[in-house]
Design goal:
It comes from Ceratodon purpureus. Keywords: Lyase, NADP. This is GDP-mannose 4,6-dehydratase. GO terms for molecular function: GDP-mannose 4,6-dehydratase activity. The chain is α/β, with parallel strands linked by helices. It contains ten helices and 13 strands. The strands form four sheets. The chain has a seven-stranded parallel beta sheet, with helices on both faces. It has a two-stranded parallel sheet with strand order 7-10. Helix 5 (164-183) links the parallel strand 5 (136-142) and strand 6. Helix 4 runs parallel beside helix 5 (164-183) and helix 6 (205-217) packs across helix 10 (320-343). The N and C termini lie far apart (65 Å).
Length: 353
Amino acid sequence: MAPEVAAPMRKALITGITGQDGSYLTEFLLKKGYEVHGIIRRSSNFNTQRLEHLYIDPHQSSARMKLHYGDLSDASALRKWVDSICPDEVYNLGAQSHVGVSFENPDYTADVVGTGALRLLEAVRIHIESTGRQVKYYQAGSSEMYGATPPPQDETTVFHPRSPYAVAKVAAHFYTVNYREAYGIFACNGILFNHESPRRGENFVTRKITRAIGRIKVGLQKKLYLGNLKASRDWGFAGDYVEGMWLMLQQEKPDDYVLATEDSHTVEEFLEESFTYVGLNWKDHVEIDPRYFRPSEVDNLRGSAKKAKEILKWEPKVQFKQLVAMMVDADLEKAQREKVLVDAGFIDSHQQP
């Protein structure tokens, strides 16, 4: 009797692997037994901090995470890596993802977020056409695409983007739909509402708040400057949402799905919950700075994840209060370590952040 042949290890290619979602998705896929390849941009400084706990020297046979230099603005590099890696699944998480920054750098945002998705889709299409392989594609959408459309927002809700970032995401969304319909590619759009974690970038409002709380609590900072406190968002945990991304690509047919907690809170409510958690009053520390208001604001985003719950059997596990506590605890610990360095004279308290 012939011995059973082990199934080949599935391969995933991730753009934006060094970001919050990329790191959680990498963890998730490695646990599932995948070999994970990530595209990273060349930089004079290492930007792989979120992946350090997963890193194994690529010279070792046990290394299942591998990083490659490339960029969503470079079509030839995307083609090269898709052809050489031969991934089973491609997750396009890479982006200039800060809404406020997109008003200051609209051309770059449109090129990377919108046209970058088109470049990657075309690389996947050509690879499939030339090899006959099936490659599944996930496009990271955003609740910002709904913009001015009132909640609740689901897969049938009309998009009304209110920033260059959101407009570019709408373009990427419809490029994905077009490639699915025109070429039969297994391509899914995940329309994810705001998802946070201790790994969130420090210039995003939730992390900006929790980072400041830690520093205020240990005496490294006194004030926190913010913009619109009335904006309301549907905040979930990023670790929950990456499972939803994966589930989309495990279905028989490609489709588009909203992932959301179906519960929204204002920035002011986030302030109240997070400052109260450590015994502080946010009104003693927060000041409004007009520079943080955007040319066009998005007032209220709250998703309906009914379709994902029914078809994907996906449910968010971490609720709002748990999320806030998780982030504050992590940033308080970080601030305490920073305080040790400040007290020892190794760094200046004013250089952070």
